[in-house]
Amino acid sequence: MSNRTDVTSRTFADLEQLLADLLSDVPDSRFLWCTAGTGFDTHVERCEGLLLGGASAPGFLSEPGGQCTLTQTRVLGLPAGECDPLESWVPVLESVSLSEQSLLVVTDEIDATVLKTLLINVHRETISCCVIGAGGLADISAFLKSGEMAKSGPAIVKQLPLIDRVSIRRAASVIFSGEEQELEGAMSPVELIHVGGSDVHDQTRRLEFMRCAIRDEDVRQGHAQ
Predict the structure, then answer these.
(1) What CATH superfamily is the domain 2-220?
(2) How far, in Å, CA of 51 to CA of 78, rounded?
(3) Burial of 205 from C-beta contacts in 10 A (0-12 / 13-18 / 19+)
(4) Which end of the chain has less Cβ packing within 10 Å, N or C?
(5) At CB < 8 A and 24+ separation, what contacts does 108-114 make?
(6) Percent of the chain with pLDDT over 70
């Protein structure tokens, strides 16, 4: 990934202008993402990412600006309507917790009891996890493991693709490239904004502002119904 542009970070007006410029250069707002930069200035990188659907519940979005970031994450894809019963999930969740890795569940339909159990464990910080929709933006066949949890139990966790980083919000999610070779054909160019600031407090305010501005654009464009 290479720097695409540099912007001096002093006021929110610069972020507003940056967002306006980027929106004219991408298919829609789901191709825009932001993170805390390591420097004082804000800059933008064009990355490759796998775009998927957004979070299945607000309880997963605990970061300022309504976002969630998972690292060292196992990805489990489930076809809609084929969610394993809750008892099949227990050993899998225990295995994920012991591995100190995260779990990303990709499905357009999940059992309400399973979803509630995952949320409870996330709030208790027993596991790091998020459930997102497939979104129809990419092929998730490489992630599908339907019907295998009951047979494999904890062993299935080591069979799941391991990704370095995924960012999630209500309207969309993005798995950044470089983790799984079989996903390269499904990648799309996305813009990653590294938000800087004059100090950590200023950077936090600016990052939250940018995430909220992109979230508002998601709503305006009809991606966060």
Answers:
(1) GroEL (3.50.7.10)
(2) 17
(3) middle
(4) C
(5) 108/53, 108/80, 108/133, 108/134, 109/80, 109/81, 109/83, 110/56, 110/78, 110/83, 111/83, 111/85, 111/86, 113/86, 114/83, 114/84, 114/86, 114/89
(6) 80
